Amino acid sequence: MFRPLLFALDPERAHDATFASLDAAARLGLAQLAAQRVAPSPVEVMGIRFPNRVGLAAGLDKDAAHLAGLATLGFGFIEVGTVTPRPQPGNPRPRMWRLPAADALINRLGFNNGGVAALVANVERAGYGGVLGINIGKNFDTPNERAADDYVACLAAVYPHAHYVTVNISSPNTKGLRDLQSDAALDALLATLAAARERLEQQHGKRVPLLVKIAPDLEAEGIRRIAQSLVAHGVDGAIATNTTIARDAVAGLPHAGEAGGLSGRPLFEPSNRVVRALAAALEGALPIIGVGGILSGDDARAKVDAGATLVQVYTGLIYRGPQLVVDCAEALQQFKTG
């Protein structure tokens, strides 16, 4: 009902208006009353019991400021972030565009967030009881040679509060970030993070799974090498994929030429390709969270059929609304025994 009104607004203003309404409804208890119930379909992955296989992808709630409202939508897990050690405004506006004819978005937000201390304070204040993933990145002005310092700082700050932590090295909107997916850079980063995680495990008395989020624009050999590196360094899972820089699927549409990451329907097949290649390379060694272009329950099943264990939605939620969470969870109930 509200979508035409929201789509008349700039995408970021619509985002803010939607969350303001959801937060208010949650505070008043209205969101809880209106929410459709998602039947439990639990699965254990990485030692975590997920109520269902459908999660919210990072990027929608960068600062973990809206957990109470999001908790009413039926997600099996919520991933917040990407968060950086220091606050940063992100790239100049405008920096987000809808492509309705393709059920797609282009964004070049650039890790706009209030910093890791603000995110942690929000998580503590929310008292969210569900499965929480926290996605971490580096500040835009931190050179890649020192990127590990930023990731370690974020990991240490969020470790007590996260069920799992995702290392984002695949956003196209921070200059040079994807270079961290290359062989030597990835090995060095993961070795540093593995050592930091061991220290944090001893300090906190718990082992928090570590995941890596990769790009959809990788070639088969690059995917194979990343899979080898993930296993070698004791990473617990992978998220495939982030947004794409390709534009073939939206060529000629308004705003298609804007720089940034493309998400939504055009990402569905590219992300499935990476999920399949990654699953083949991993040979069951690690679970995969599949994300990209899910707009229906059938799409969620296709991600699992491609090799994902869990799925995440983001752009589909904007185009289909909260019903998408229910539809995907129901479609994946057949896989509940995992």
CATH fold description: TIM Barrel
Strand count, sense and barrel status of the largest sheet are: 8 strands, parallel, barrel
Tell me the name of the CATH homologous superfamily: Aldolase class I
How many angstroms separate the termini? 36 Å
Low-confidence stretches: none
H/E element order: HHHEEEHEEEHEHEHEHEEHEHEHH
Assembly type: single chain
> Spatial order of the strands in the main sheet?
3-4-7-8-9-10-12-13
Secondary structure category: alpha/beta
CATH class: Alpha Beta
Rg = 18 Å
Counting DSSP E segments of at least 2 residues, the number of strands comes to 13
Helical residue percent?
25-40%
- Domain count, please report it: 1
Q: What is the global morphology?
A: globular
Number of helices: 12
Strand content: 15-25%
Mean pLDDT value: 94
CATH architecture assignment: Alpha-Beta Barrel
Describe this structure in a few short sentences.
This protein has 12 helices and 13 strands. It has 338 residues and is an alpha/beta fold.
Overview of the molecule:
It is a single chain. The protein has 338 residues and is of the alpha/beta class. It has one domain: Aldolase class I (TIM Barrel, Alpha-Beta Barrel). It is built from twelve helices and 13 strands. Strands 3-4-7-8-9-10-12-13 form an eight-stranded parallel beta barrel, surrounded by four helices. A three-stranded antiparallel β-sheet has the order 5-6-11. α7 runs parallel beside α8 and α9 packs parallel to α10 (297-306). The longest helix has 22 residues, at 183-204. It is globular and about 50 Å long. It starts with a helix and ends in a 7-residue tail after the last helix.
